[in-house]
Design brief:
By secondary structure, the chain is an alpha+beta fold. Helix content is 25%, strand content 45%. The chain has a six-stranded mixed β-sheet, with helices on one face. A hairpin with a 3-residue loop joins strand 3 and strand 4. The protein starts with 7 loop residues before the first helix and ends in a 15-residue tail after the last strand.
Amino acid sequence: MTKNFYEVHDVLETYKNAVQEKDEEKLLSLYASDIHIYDCWGSWESKGIQSWQANVSEWFNGLRKNDVRLEVAFTDVVIETVSTLAFVHCAVSYTGYQQQTAVKLQQTINRFTYGLRKTQDSWEIVHEHSSLPIDFETGKGMFDLK
Protein backbone atom coordinates (compact mmCIF):
# COMPACT_ATOMS: atom_id res chain seq x y z
CA MET A 1 0.00 0.00 0.00
CA THR A 2 2.98 2.35 0.37
CA LYS A 3 3.39 4.79 -2.48
CA ASN A 4 5.97 7.48 -3.03
CA PHE A 5 4.71 11.05 -2.99
CA TYR A 6 7.66 13.23 -3.90
CA GLU A 7 5.82 16.54 -3.63
CA VAL A 8 3.23 17.67 -1.11
CA HIS A 9 1.03 18.75 -4.02
CA ASP A 10 1.02 15.08 -5.18
CA VAL A 11 -0.53 14.12 -1.84
CA LEU A 12 -3.38 16.59 -2.30
CA GLU A 13 -3.99 15.51 -5.90
CA THR A 14 -4.05 11.85 -4.85
CA TYR A 15 -6.47 12.67 -2.02
CA LYS A 16 -8.82 14.36 -4.50
CA ASN A 17 -8.66 11.45 -6.94
CA ALA A 18 -9.03 8.79 -4.25
CA VAL A 19 -12.18 10.40 -2.86
CA GLN A 20 -13.69 10.89 -6.32
CA GLU A 21 -12.91 7.24 -7.17
CA LYS A 22 -14.00 6.02 -3.71
CA ASP A 23 -10.66 4.16 -3.60
CA GLU A 24 -10.06 3.34 0.05
CA GLU A 25 -6.61 1.85 -0.47
CA LYS A 26 -5.40 4.86 -2.45
CA LEU A 27 -6.69 7.30 0.17
CA LEU A 28 -5.21 5.37 3.09
CA SER A 29 -1.83 5.20 1.32
CA LEU A 30 -1.48 8.93 2.01
CA TYR A 31 -1.51 8.53 5.78
CA ALA A 32 1.08 7.47 8.33
CA SER A 33 0.25 4.45 10.48
CA ASP A 34 0.22 6.75 13.54
CA ILE A 35 -2.11 9.33 11.95
CA HIS A 36 -4.03 11.64 14.29
CA ILE A 37 -7.16 13.24 12.81
CA TYR A 38 -9.70 15.73 14.13
CA ASP A 39 -12.75 15.59 11.87
CA CYS A 40 -16.01 17.51 11.36
CA TRP A 41 -17.94 14.39 10.36
CA GLY A 42 -18.81 11.18 12.16
CA SER A 43 -16.08 10.38 14.60
CA TRP A 44 -14.64 13.43 16.35
CA GLU A 45 -11.14 11.98 16.43
CA SER A 46 -9.20 9.13 14.83
CA LYS A 47 -5.94 7.85 16.26
CA GLY A 48 -4.06 5.39 14.09
CA ILE A 49 -4.67 4.10 10.61
CA GLN A 50 -7.14 1.39 11.69
CA SER A 51 -9.41 3.97 13.29
CA TRP A 52 -9.21 6.17 10.19
CA GLN A 53 -9.78 3.19 7.90
CA ALA A 54 -13.07 2.43 9.67
CA ASN A 55 -14.24 6.02 9.05
CA VAL A 56 -13.14 5.98 5.40
CA SER A 57 -14.92 2.65 4.80
CA GLU A 58 -18.13 3.99 6.31
CA TRP A 59 -17.85 7.20 4.26
CA PHE A 60 -17.22 5.47 0.92
CA ASN A 61 -19.83 2.75 1.58
CA GLY A 62 -22.42 5.49 2.25
CA LEU A 63 -21.53 7.23 -1.02
CA ARG A 64 -21.84 3.93 -2.92
CA LYS A 65 -25.12 3.00 -1.22
CA ASN A 66 -26.64 6.37 -2.09
CA ASP A 67 -25.14 6.36 -5.59
CA VAL A 68 -23.29 9.64 -5.02
CA ARG A 69 -20.33 10.90 -7.01
CA LEU A 70 -18.28 13.25 -4.88
CA GLU A 71 -16.04 15.90 -6.43
CA VAL A 72 -13.26 17.45 -4.37
CA ALA A 73 -11.59 20.82 -4.96
CA PHE A 74 -8.78 22.46 -3.00
CA THR A 75 -8.64 26.26 -2.88
CA ASP A 76 -6.53 28.84 -1.09
CA VAL A 77 -3.79 26.24 -0.66
CA VAL A 78 -0.71 27.31 1.28
CA ILE A 79 2.18 24.84 1.56
CA GLU A 80 5.22 25.43 3.76
CA THR A 81 8.01 22.86 3.80
CA VAL A 82 11.33 22.26 5.47
CA SER A 83 13.49 19.22 4.89
CA THR A 84 11.25 16.57 6.50
CA LEU A 85 8.12 18.46 7.57
CA ALA A 86 5.33 20.21 5.70
CA PHE A 87 2.38 22.27 6.80
CA VAL A 88 -0.65 22.81 4.56
CA HIS A 89 -3.79 24.85 5.10
CA CYS A 90 -6.60 25.25 2.61
CA ALA A 91 -10.32 25.13 1.94
CA VAL A 92 -11.71 21.86 0.63
CA SER A 93 -14.99 21.78 -1.25
CA TYR A 94 -16.96 18.53 -1.47
CA THR A 95 -19.75 18.55 -4.05
CA GLY A 96 -22.07 15.55 -4.27
CA TYR A 97 -23.91 14.58 -7.43
CA GLN A 98 -26.42 11.82 -8.05
CA GLN A 99 -24.40 9.35 -10.11
CA GLN A 100 -27.11 8.50 -12.66
CA THR A 101 -28.66 11.93 -13.21
CA ALA A 102 -25.71 14.25 -12.41
CA VAL A 103 -28.08 16.34 -10.27
CA LYS A 104 -26.16 18.35 -7.67
CA LEU A 105 -27.20 17.15 -4.22
CA GLN A 106 -25.08 19.13 -1.79
CA GLN A 107 -21.89 21.11 -1.39
CA THR A 108 -19.87 21.67 1.74
CA ILE A 109 -16.68 23.61 2.32
CA ASN A 110 -14.37 22.66 5.17
CA ARG A 111 -11.18 24.28 6.40
CA PHE A 112 -8.29 21.82 6.53
CA THR A 113 -4.84 21.79 8.06
CA TYR A 114 -2.43 18.98 7.28
CA GLY A 115 0.88 18.11 8.90
CA LEU A 116 3.12 15.89 6.77
CA ARG A 117 6.49 14.28 7.31
CA LYS A 118 8.94 13.04 4.76
CA THR A 119 10.20 9.50 5.23
CA GLN A 120 12.47 7.78 2.71
CA ASP A 121 11.86 10.49 0.09
CA SER A 122 8.05 10.27 0.35
CA TRP A 123 5.51 12.53 2.07
CA GLU A 124 2.83 11.11 4.39
CA ILE A 125 0.07 12.81 6.35
CA VAL A 126 0.65 12.51 10.10
CA HIS A 127 -2.00 15.00 11.24
CA GLU A 128 -5.22 16.25 9.67
CA HIS A 129 -7.63 18.75 11.18
CA SER A 130 -10.87 19.85 9.56
CA SER A 131 -12.99 22.64 10.96
CA LEU A 132 -16.00 24.82 10.31
CA PRO A 133 -17.09 28.22 11.52
CA ILE A 134 -19.91 27.91 14.07
CA ASP A 135 -23.18 29.85 13.97
CA PHE A 136 -23.40 31.15 17.54
CA GLU A 137 -27.21 31.41 17.42
CA THR A 138 -27.78 27.78 16.45
CA GLY A 139 -24.54 26.22 17.66
CA LYS A 140 -24.25 24.41 14.32
CA GLY A 141 -21.37 24.29 11.87
CA MET A 142 -21.71 26.39 8.73
CA PHE A 143 -20.70 24.12 5.86
CA ASP A 144 -21.21 26.51 2.97
CA LEU A 145 -19.21 29.58 3.93
CA LYS A 146 -15.95 30.71 2.42
